[in-house]
Amino acid sequence: MVASRTGGLTPAAHFACSPARTPFARSPFARSPFARSPFARSPFESIEDPHVANIASQIKRNRQNEKRRLRNKSVRAELRTRTKNAVAAAETGAEDSVEQLRLAVKRIDKAAARGVIHKNTAANHKSRLVRRVAALEAAAAETEAEAE
Question: In CATH, what number is assigned to the domain containing residue 63?
Fold first, then answer.
């Protein structure tokens, strides 16, 4: 006779005779559904892969990718900062709002040229930013006209 995984009982009989092992009971060693995976990481953490490559070319590739990831992260952060500055300047009606917009668009173009973001993504970012700034300036001009 071949022994089965459940000790010779069918799965239904195994659950019937073992009250602690009902279909809804959890093992004491089961992980919480909200627990983080041991391999999960924040996008801002350095990559510490538990599976280190043995091949020299792959080790070098991993090193290069990590440097690029960190460089790209700082470029993206600067894009967000420049965009926020341009929008804030337009909201307050600052004198340098046109200059802030120009700097934001310049950084978006540079990021696309360096391959940090795709050129179509850059075009979308610029379009949205210019429309947003124009709407803010129009609203500011409209409230100024009403005040007079």
Answer: 1.20.58.110
8 Å CB contact between 111 and 81: no
pTM assigned to the model: 0.62
Domain of 85, in residue numbers: 56-147
Is pLDDT of 108 > 70?
A: yes
24 lies in some domain: no
Q: Name the token pair of 40.
A: 């999960």
- With respect to residue 129, please indicate whether it lies within any of the assigned structural domains: yes
Residue indicated by tokens 């009250």: 19
For residue 77, what are the CA distances in angstroms to 23, 70, 88, 118, 138? 48, 11, 16, 16, 28
Which sign does the torsion angle of CA 136, 141, 145, 148 carry? positive
> For the chain, what is the domain count?
1
* CB burial of residue 86 (10 Å; 0-12, 13-18, 19+): buried
**Residue 47 falls within a domain, yes or no?**
no
Between CA 65 and CA 60 the distance in angstroms is 9
Q: Specify the pLDDT at position 53.
A: 87
